[in-house]
Amino acid sequence: MTELQQLLADANNGIDEVSRLLRQDAGLTARVVRIANGIVFNRGEAVGSLEGALGRIGFNEVHRLAGAAVLRQLASMEFAFYPISTFAFCRNSLFVAFLMEEMAGYAELDPRVSYTTGLLRSVGKLLLDATARAERRSEEALPLGHDGLIAWEQQVFGLTHPDVASAVLRAWRFPVEVFMPIRDHYLHGLAVEPHVSCQVLNLASAFAEEQGWGLPGETLYWNAASAFQARLRISSDERTEIVERAAGQTRRFLRALDQSDSETVSLQSAEL
Predict the structure, then answer these.
(1) pLDDT in the model for residue 35
(2) What total number of domains does the chain contain?
(3) What separation in angstroms does the CA of 111 have from each of 152, 170, 204?
(4) Domain that holds residue 92
(5) Helix (H) or strand (E) holding 98
(6) Residues with pLDDT less than 50, the chain
(7) Distances (CA, A) of 265 to 260, 269, 270
(8) Each residue of 189-227: b (16+ CB within 10 Å) or e?
């Protein structure tokens, strides 16, 4: 994702450079081609190559689509400890990503970096849940109380998903512009004024909550959202338009991913 951002930021790069990068992951390559042939992006004859898929999808969609496909690969199993379905997780991640992209201009942030930040906002939950699933198979998940997600994670795991995400994203060589807002957007224990990217991510998460697409245990962390909206000078009408556009994009990408998953299952069944 971070290498793809760098490639697309340079106007001298084209389909050949992007194809070379994406081909490093055969599963991702196959998924992109399937999505390009699906009902959301299909414009006629089927394409059989990654280059053809990229030509159909267009460069503006490549980064979004690759990120969404990677997220779907990561969220391939139901949560064992968090009271979250994989559908709700993917919907929230995509919606927050599109909201971040929409609001990037208000905060003078890079839209692609903002999209990536929103998309990976909750990746620490995936990592904590997968680790706990492997190490604590006989344990039952504690119910999520009224003290909020961070307190619950401290009790269950001894650490929080923003800290885990920050450490892992650094190890994966993501820039500070991605992992810092993910680490701090809950505003938990901050001794200084949050960076504007943290404010935008907090606001995007609050919009998701209001849409009914939030995640359990997070409501109390969005108390500062209205102040952040005023600070970014987003009017009520603009807010409505931002949410509607982001929701439309989220539904569109969920349809594309769902069809891609269905085709994968059909292919696997045929092979069996």
Answers:
(1) 81
(2) 2
(3) 32, 20, 14
(4) 77-250
(5) helix 86-103
(6) 264-272
(7) 9, 6, 9
(8) eeeeebbbbbbbbbbbbbbbbebebbbebbeebbeebee
